Amino acid sequence: MSESLMPESLELLAQEVHFAYPGRDVLRGVTLTVRPGEVVSLLGANGSGKTTLLRLLLGLSKPKSGRVSLNGKLLRHYPRRELAQYLAYVPQTHVTPFPYTVREIVVLGRLPHTGLVRSATRRDHRVAMGMLDRLGIADLAERPYTEISGGERQLALIARALAQGARILIMDEPVSNLDYGNQLRFLGLLRSLAADGYAIIKATHHPEHTLLASTRVALLHHGAIVLDGPPAEVVTPSTIELIYQVEVSAFYAPNGKAIAFHPPGMNQVHIVPAEGR
Amino acid sequence: MRWTILLLGLLAAAVLAALLVGRYPLRVKDIASFLLAATGLKEMPKDAYDLLYNVIVQIRLPRVLAAVLVGAALATSGGAYQAVFRNPLVSPELMGVLAGGAFGAAVGILVSGDWLVVQVMAFAMGVVAVAVAVAIANLAGGASIIMLVLGGVISGTLFTALLSAAKFVADPSNKLPAIEYWLMGSLSLGDINVIGKVVLPMTLGIVALASLGRALDALSMGDDEARSLGVPVTIVRYSVIAVATLISAATVSLAGMVGWVGLIIPHVARLAIGPGNVRLLPASACLGAIFLLATDSVSRTLYNVEIPIGILTALFGVPVFLLVVRRARKGWL
């Protein structure tokens, strides 16, 4: 675990990044950075370029122009195996075609350390079990990944990313397959990971979640970041209307922070005074 | 570890059994005394020694070696293909290697009666067919799985059509039956010289595939995940396809078309020891060898003419596959 918390500072940086598929511009000059301790949420409508941006940040595709760098060095100048020791990808939960055990999946996170041809060492298994333990799913270690629930799979994929020893975790809509309780637990996990010095960047479809667990929100609209800052400043009824084209009004907690957004006309709730309950 | 010892023990037993059974049955004692005589530790009458030498070394050993090599190579390449294409229904046939090999052999039979020519042609055209499939995939836009499968389907269709053309022009009284018989597969075609030449490269190929087990595990998660785990996806995928093609094309040249082994054996192995490719591929190699040794022994002894092995692997393969499907339904179907 010590290697996942290396002391030196880390910065993943995209500068003026452009990307296009034939006939369609996807990203037009995006600049974004993420550092340890941050949970950055990418908020944007379908097709706004979130997934493309994550792929560029992972070095999975190359920008048409602009640069993506880790600690000042372009991603494409890193060998894949070295990059994997800094950047980990947490995909949307999926089903593998073969019934690998949870432990086998997590041990794969050690690949960048042991190499392609050597088999996993005892230490690799120890690290993997440690991460499963940390996420509270050690008892699932020998269960087939194909037979556990969506929430457990998401935790297994995070355990794999942690076993990878990477401090920057890049997540694509991590809560999309989780039930309500697991979503909230997951947001709590993100906060504790950030507090431990991990840098997290995730694409999300839930404006309200960004208010719970993000340190920053970047608003992606038509391939450009239109706002990047603290959630309370970025996620407001007017910005939600801008990116999703729906009219909403905000609901506020007693401390004055927005906690929920509902469309007008669907929010006919009676707020019962506390003493009348 | 337990499994390795068990499987190697079973393999040794299967090899011994395959040496014993046949038109001229031997006992374990015969083989032991032949080995002692061959190493000069014990005397044996010359005519008895010659008889045993003929049966064991000249007749049965090439077949046994061919069965072990073909079974191990098909099963290992099948398992590797299934991981690379993330699809449990894939077998070495997918990229057109068998169709190409069949066409090559047919052409070899047409232009020459020499078995060596047939074997070389089968191997070469098997490799060419896969090269065509990969070239089509690249023309169509890259090394993605769907494009490779598409390339394989097109290449397979092309070479099947070419095979039909070769059959059409073949002399129906002698060449056509030879082609048809070859297509059913047989281990009786290999002579010890050819087998001796392919033992080392094929073994190396099987070991190479098995040593990429972890990379194959990562690859079966998907390209993006494998890359972000530090795996050079394109290089690994093409290397695995290249090695699997070479060793399965070699099986075609040794034994003709032996279907089903590459599809079912990895499933049997997966059911027994789990899907991790580090253990799965060596286990598949052992099980494939055992399966083909057993099938070949049956094909030699069941009836007074030898039954083409391709027929038996399919006939045995179907019930085995049904059993596996019933047991493993939850995992991958």
What do these coordinates show?
Chain A is an alpha/beta fold and 277 residues long. Helices cover 30% and strands 25% of the residues of chain A. In chain A, helix 5 packs across helix 6. The termini of chain A are far apart. Chain B is an all-alpha fold and 333 residues long. Chain B is globular. The A-B interface holds A 55, 58-60, 80-85, 87-89, 91, 94, 96-101, 104-105, 108-109, 111-112, 114, 116-117, 119-120, 144, 146-147, 164, 170 and B 82-83, 86-88, 211-215, 217-218, 220-222, 224-225, 227-232, 236, 270, 274-276, 278, 330-332.
CATH topology of the largest domain in chain A: Rossmann fold
Number of helices of chain A: 10
Quaternary class: heterodimer
The number of domains of chain B is: 1
CATH class of chain B: Mainly Alpha
Biggest sheet strand order of chain A reads 6-7-8-3-9-10
Helix content of chain B: over 70%
Portion of residues within helices of chain A: 25-40%
Shape of chain B: globular
| Count of the domains of chain A | 2
Cα-atom Rg of chain B, whole angstroms? 20 Å
